[in-house]
């Protein structure tokens, strides 16, 4: 291995990148645009659920319940229904996602110490929103009845055996942005890194400059290494850019050791850059390489690596298969280290899996790439 | 440095599926020679050169270049050869200087060597003071010379030029040949392919290649002197194209073809050739202005070799 020849390739590649403003723009702006788009678009937090109420009781007590429900940011009162039969129409027309029906004599029955049923109707066609709305409603009705008992009934006449005191750790507000953004960075980086190197070898073949390399004493490994190095620098610069944007725009914390995270990130990037080189040495044209790198990284990474859908709920065969995907492991590392502040020991098994995959990809690339046309 | 063998080829063959691009070609080129491969497009010139440079793997046969086996020691061969093709290996989005520096880098030239050779290449290509210019902006002729400069940067012992002057203007072609002669003076060996007859005459020795086979190999003068072309009768007459057709249909005429404004005819029998040709043409009503025997040109010889190899039964094919 001659470092001089490796340097010649790297220098030439760097000059090419710097001279091509379009590809430079793609490598810096694309990750930012994607981060902003996905960061704002992918949001699982359910707020402002439209709510209709039928309250024939209309006592101070029933009005207090309605107020308690709609005071929060979770529900927004869209309509007081004049008739119970309007409930179906309100749901079907999409006017309201949930309807609460308070029975006649609600206030009086409560005052008499009788149990009252409050009917809640929820539009279940969007199952995700429905189950969240259901949870909110149940919780709020329970809250309200506890409060009612404490204020209206004589002190110590009721004993509640368990009062749950739930505290959520690591993402205290259960904000989905904090869950999505580290994963999003993982997705963006693998796509970008694979795209970067996917062009570099097939371009030499397409433009006929590969012949000049073939007849020269440079070896296949020197070409690969020389082509890899400048893109490692670019990919690391993108990491800093995207991480800084994630921090500024979405307040994504970094609680783990940044040096260790950066080292693991580098291993992750190498697997993606190696994949790009592999694609570039197989593909017949730059367009084919571009599409292979784009679709080959983006789709499986978004769908299969736990970015949105948990790996643990996948069928066994698929779950085993996605262990071969570097992002499956790095997704966990990134989330644990940014949100939980996990130590190196905790992520070590994932780090080892990631390292093995990276070595595998690089070995495959070296064995596939030959100095031929 | 000018003794010994630079290129030795034995039974070199390349098949692409059923098509035989190069068919058991053997030749030997001593050091310091300018050797020309002459043949029409698709005859196998490029394929032969590409096998010797290690771009293509031969289907059969073997060879040594600069004393090293092309199959067993490809790396040793690569550091000793320079190669320039019709499709120049230049990076169009790099400047002239950057292209030279890149090739200097992959041939492991040190800083001092690089500076000296860069100056040499820029001067040779007539590109001094244009180092900063993008290669893309150069006209084709200058690109060709820059590509030659890149191929010669590391002072190779053996130089392969695959139709280096294709599409170049006469002035550029002359300058190219000046460079080739300078290389010879410095002891380098050159294998150049061409389909220009005038260029072929400038080579020390020539190989005629046709349909993948090396049909003749000798010095240009000896090839001309050889009697294989027989007598050439140059005829000036009316309707030359029709006259060629008539002659080709006639027994006793080996070959007839247009040559400039007239016709070159090669009759089977040398004795009384002029009269025989005149008789045929007058019988068919052509008015002949002039008919005389001439010294065969390299063109005539090449055509006669091709015809001979076409007439030969397919015994040579394995």
Describe the fold and architecture:
With 373 residues, chain A is mainly α. Chain A has helices at residues 3-19, 21-41, 60-71, 86-92, 106-111, 127-152, 176-198, 200-207, 210-214, 220-250, 258-282, 286-304, 316-321, 326-340, 344-368; strands at residues 49-54, 75-80, 98-101, 119-122. Chain A folds into 2 domains: 3-43 and 175-368, no CATH class; 49-157, abc type-2 transporter like fold (3-Layer(aba) Sandwich). Chain A has a 4-stranded mixed beta sheet with strand order 2-1-3-4, sandwiched between helices. Chain A is elongated, with a radius of gyration of 29 Å. The two termini of chain A are 22 Å apart. With 318 residues, chain B is of the alpha/beta class. Chain B is built from 11 helices and 14 strands. Chain B has helices spanning 45-53, 74-78, 96-106, 111-125, 140-152, 170-185, 197-200, 220-225, 240-248, 273-283, 298-311; strands at 5-16, 19-30, 34-38, 60-65, 68-69, 81-84, 158-162, 189-194, 205-210, 213-218, 232-237, 253-259, 262-267, 288-294. The interface between A and B is medium-sized, with 27 and 28 residues.
Mind sketching the topology for me?
The complex is a heterodimer of chains A (373) and B (318).
Chain A: H1 3-19, H2 21-41, E1 49-54, H3 60-71, E2 75-80, H4 86-92, E3 98-101, H5 106-111, E4 119-122, H6 127-152, H7 176-198, H8 200-207, H9 210-214, H10 220-250, H11 258-282, H12 286-304, H13 316-321, H14 326-340, H15 344-368
Parallel strand pairs in A: 1-2, 1-3
Antiparallel strand pairs in A: 3-4
Helix pairs in contact in A: 1-10, 2-7, 2-10, 7-10, 7-11, 7-12, 7-14, 8-11, 10-11, 11-12, 11-14, 11-15, 14-15
Chain B: E1 5-16, E2 19-30, E3 34-38, H1 45-53, E4 60-65, E5 68-69, H2 74-78, E6 81-84, H3 96-106, H4 111-125, H5 140-152, E7 158-162, H6 170-185, E8 189-194, H7 197-200, E9 205-210, E10 213-218, H8 220-225, E11 232-237, H9 240-248, E12 253-259, E13 262-267, H10 273-283, E14 288-294, H11 298-311
Parallel strand pairs in B: 3-8, 3-9, 6-7, 7-8
Antiparallel strand pairs in B: 1-2, 1-4, 4-5, 9-10, 11-13, 11-14, 12-13
């Amino acid at each position: 291995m001659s470092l001089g020849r490796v340097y010649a390739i790297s220098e030439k590649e760097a000059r090419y990148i710097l001279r091509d403003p379009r590809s430079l723009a793609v490598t810096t702006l694309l990750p930012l645009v994607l981060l902003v788009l996905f960061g704002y678009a992918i949001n699982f937090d359910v707020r402002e659920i439209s709510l209709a109420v039928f309250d024939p009781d209309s006592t101070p007590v029933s009005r207090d319940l309605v107020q308690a429900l709609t005071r929060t940011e979770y529900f927004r009162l869209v309509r007081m229904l004049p008739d119970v039969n309007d409930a179906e129409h309100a749901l079907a027309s999409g006017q309201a996602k949930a309807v609460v029906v308070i029975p006649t004599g609600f206030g009086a029955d409560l005052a008499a110490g009788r149990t009252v049923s409050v009917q809640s109707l929820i539009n279940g066609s969007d199952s995700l929103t429905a189950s969240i709305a259901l949870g909110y409603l149940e919780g709020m009705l329970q809250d309200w009845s506890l409060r009612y008992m404490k204020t209206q009934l004589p002190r110590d006449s009721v004993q509640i055996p368990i009062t749950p005191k739930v505290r959520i750790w690591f993402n205290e507000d259960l904000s989905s942005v904090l869950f999505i953004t580290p994963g999003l960075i993982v997705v963006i980086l693998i796509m970008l890194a694979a795209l970067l190197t996917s062009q570099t070898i097939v371009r030499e073949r397409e433009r006929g400059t590969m012949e000049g390399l073939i007849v020269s004493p440079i070896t296949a490994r020197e070409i690969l290494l020389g082509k890899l190095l400048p893109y490692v620098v670019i990919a690391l610069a993108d990491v800093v850019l995207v991480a800084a944007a994630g921090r500024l725009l979405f307040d994504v914390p970094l609680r783990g050791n940044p040096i260790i995270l950066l080292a693991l990130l580098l291993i992750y990037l190498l697997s993606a850059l190696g994949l790009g080189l592999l694609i570039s040495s197989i593909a017949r044209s730059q367009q084919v390489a571009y599409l292979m790198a784009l679709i080959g990284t983006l789709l499986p990474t978004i769908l299969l690596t736990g970015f949105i859908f948990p790996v643990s709920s996948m069928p066994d065969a698929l779950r085993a298969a996605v262990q071969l995907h570097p992002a499956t492991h790095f997704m966990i590392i990134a989330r644990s280290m940014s949100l939980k502040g996990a130590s190196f020991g905790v992520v070590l098994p994932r780090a080892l899996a990631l390292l093995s995959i990276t070595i595998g990809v690089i070995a495959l690339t070296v064995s596939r790439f030959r100095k031929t046309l | 440095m000018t003794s010994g063998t630079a290129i030795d080829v034995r039974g070199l063959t390349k098949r692409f599926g059923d098509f035989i691009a190069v068919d058991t070609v053997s030749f030997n080129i001593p050091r310091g020679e300018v050797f020309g491969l002459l043949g029409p497009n698709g005859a196998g010139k490029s394929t032969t050169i590409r096998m010797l440079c290690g771009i293509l793997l031969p289907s059969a046969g073997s060879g040594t270049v600069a004393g090293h086996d092309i199959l067993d020691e490809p790396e040793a061969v690569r550091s000793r050869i320079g190669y320039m093709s019709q499709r120049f290996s230049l990076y169009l989005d790099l400047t002239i200087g950057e292209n030279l520096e890149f090739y200097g880098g992959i041939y492991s030239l040190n800083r001092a060597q690089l500076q000296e050779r860069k100056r040499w290449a820029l001067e040779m290509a007539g590109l001094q003071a244009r180092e900063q210019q993008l290669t893309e902006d150069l006209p084709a002729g200058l690109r060709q010379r820059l590509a030659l400069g890149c191929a010669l940067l590391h002072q190779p012992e053996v130089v392969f030029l695959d139709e280096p002057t294709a599409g170049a203007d006469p002035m550029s072609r002359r300058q190219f040949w000046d460079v080739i002669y300078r290389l010879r003076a410095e002891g380098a060996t050159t294998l150049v392919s061409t389909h220009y007859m005038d260029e072929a005459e400038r080579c020390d020795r020539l190989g005629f290649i046709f349909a993948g086979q090396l049909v003749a190999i000798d010095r240009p003068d000896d090839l001309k002197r050889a009697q294989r072309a027989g007598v050439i009768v140059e005829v000036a007459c009316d309707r030359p194209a029709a006259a060629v057709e008539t002659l080709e249909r006639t027994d006793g005429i080996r070959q007839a073809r247009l040559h400039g404004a007239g016709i070159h005819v090669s009759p089977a029998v040398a004795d009384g050739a002029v009269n025989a040709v005149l008789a045929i043409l007058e019988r068919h009503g052509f008015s002949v202005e002039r008919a005389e025997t001439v010294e065969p040109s390299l063109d005539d010889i090449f055509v006669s070799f091709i015809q001979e190899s076409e007439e030969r039964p397919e015994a040579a094919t394995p």
